[in-house]
Amino acid sequence: MDLNRLKQAVIAGDMAGARKLTEQAIEAGIEPGVILDEALVAGMDEVGELFKANEVYVPEVLLAAKSMQQAMQLLKPLLVKDGIEPKGKIVVGTVRGDLHDIGKNLVAMMLEGAGFEIIDLGNDVPPERFVKAAAEQGATIIGMSALLTTTMYAMKETIDLLKAEGLDGKVKTMVGGAPVTQAFADEIGASAYGDDAATAVDLAKRFMAEQ
Ligand code: B12
Known about the structure:
Layout: H1 3-12, H2 15-27, H3 32-52, H4 58-82, E1 89-94, H5 102-113, E2 117-120, H6 127-137, E3 141-145, H7 153-164, E4 172-176, H8 182-188, E5 192-193, H9 197-210
Parallel strand pairs: 1-2, 1-3, 3-4, 4-5
Helix pairs in contact: 1-2, 1-3, 1-4, 2-4, 3-4, 4-5, 5-9, 6-7
This protein binds cobalamin.
């Protein structure tokens, strides 16, 4: 069983193929963790690089992420049984008043593809919900998305609330979305800014390494 075929199926966004090849890999007795790392995560890593280089665009990334999710449905129960720990827990959501969730979903999928456990709060998420979810579920990263210039200040409220709750430093924050910039992230005291979903993965890995 050649794991490279599964990796290529993920990159090509071939959902049925990814599912079938994952089934075959499991039947061939390949360790779930190896299938995850060497085929699925490796495939999503490559898609992330292609996306950064503008060689593939949002629809291709969404298809690749969906293919990976198909494969993950089969792998997840086996991984849990194997006791493979996720890389870390991340709360993601689009901020209060904002219903745009395409970019946030992309970020969530790429992070999941990279092995993180994602708590996706959806859209229109008030600061209290971000902070409560992180505290209750023991997440160490909050990723916030905003697409409207009128909603991006809700990010600051979340960061201020984290500070007020004494979670500043324990929970890192990353922010993104079309109107958000590095300067804005600095102004509101976010831990980091990312301009695309692949960068969100790089940032999350960096945060985990710093802990
Ligand atoms: C699709 C869309 C919608 C859809 C949303 C559907 C959905 N389920 O998301 C619908 C039709 C519902 C919609 C509604 C509205 N929209 Co609209 N919409 C868009 C549009 C065309 C595309 C957004 C998008 O999905 N882009 C693709 C994704 C992949 O890109 P992205 O979100 O930027 O995400 C990437 C990065 O930013 C980054 N990223 C995103 N989040 C995060 C988070 C982290 C942590 C990190 C690290 C990175 C990161 O990674 C992503 C992948 O690379 C934009 C135009 C545009 N060019 O942005 C307008 C736009 C955002 N909308 C706009 C407006 C005004 C509205 C409405 C107010 C319109 C109205 N009058 O009703 C409503 C608001 C509703 C609300 N309360 O939210 C304006 C905002 C203007 C402004 N300055 O604030 C825009 C810019 C259009 C325009 N030029 O006027 N919209």
